Amino acid sequence: MNPIGIGLITFACLFGAALLGMRLRAALPEHHMSDDSRHLLQTGLGIIGTMAGLVLGLLVASATSSYNAQRSELDDVSSKVVLLDRVLAHYGPGAGAPRRALRQTVQRALDRIWPQEGSGSPGARPLTGAEVLLDEVGGLSPKNDLQNALKPQAMGLLMNLAQIRWLMYEQADTSVSKPLLVLLVFWFMITFIGFGLFAPWNGTTIVALALCAMAVSGAVIVMLEMYAPFQGFMQISSAPLREALAHLDL
Q1: Phi, psi for residue 230 in degrees, rounded to 5
Q2: Fewest CB within 10 A of the end CB: N or C in the chain?
Q3: Burial class (CB in 10 A: 0-12, 13-18, 19+), 62
Q4: Residue 131: how many CB atoms within 10 A of its CB?
């Protein structure tokens, strides 16, 4: 789903609903806008508006949680990459090939996840070439007690890195339910029609309703952007992984 496009559609629906409500007010017979009718409409609109606001708040909170989880996992990956390199460095000269493979794997991951900062095609899927690194570390032949102790640590870090990367890949497909989003916009449309019914036709009210529609649309855009943390204007920075790459000095 394109967040900007959906946000524009949401704005058009809500602002159009408000204008429709203002037109309905002029077309309805006077007794339809009596005090009893107004009281009932205001109560119903209050219930629908409260439900819509609560659901929107929960969706934004869920998107924020997903976004923060991905950013935390990226920091975790970056720290484990540096730690793995340090373990291999202390292993000795025999770990030169795994360290080179580690650097190449990190560079390819950067180019693939953030292609606008390098070369390659976009995508958060873990690279199958990373298995070469696992083979390189698994092929190490310890010759002393230190190397015997460091090899299992390196293998454990590699397995943790693989697990986190696949978790990040699976989480990248998480998004808001389309039927729920449509229902949410429908609820807000009903609310904005009610706003229009009680609003006089003048420039001030039209601008106010437009700003309200923009606020709701902006919340929808931000929510959808946070569900795609490696794309769009809220893209997670590659700085932690690039800083980790800078520490992988051979």
Answers
A1: -110, 20
A2: C
A3: middle
A4: 13
* Contact (CB, 8 A) for 7 and 221: yes
What is the token pair recorded at 167? 């978790």
Using DSSP's 3-state secondary structure scheme, residue 191 falls into helix
Distances (CA, A) of 1 to 34, 38, 48, 228: 43, 38, 26, 10
Residue count of the chain: 250
Cβ-proximal residues to 227 (8 Å cutoff; 6+ apart), any chain: 63, 66, 67, 174, 175, 176
Interatomic CA distance for residues 115 and 118, integer angstroms: 5
**Is residue 235 within 8 Å of 229, Cβ to Cβ?**
yes
Encode pLDDT of 196-230 as tens digits. 888 888 889 999 999 999 999 999 999 999 988 88
Rounded to two decimals, the pTM is 0.79
- Both structure tokens of 249: 């000095």
Q: Give SS3 for 238.
A: coil
Q: What's the pLDDT tens digit per position in 67-77?
A: 999 999 999 99
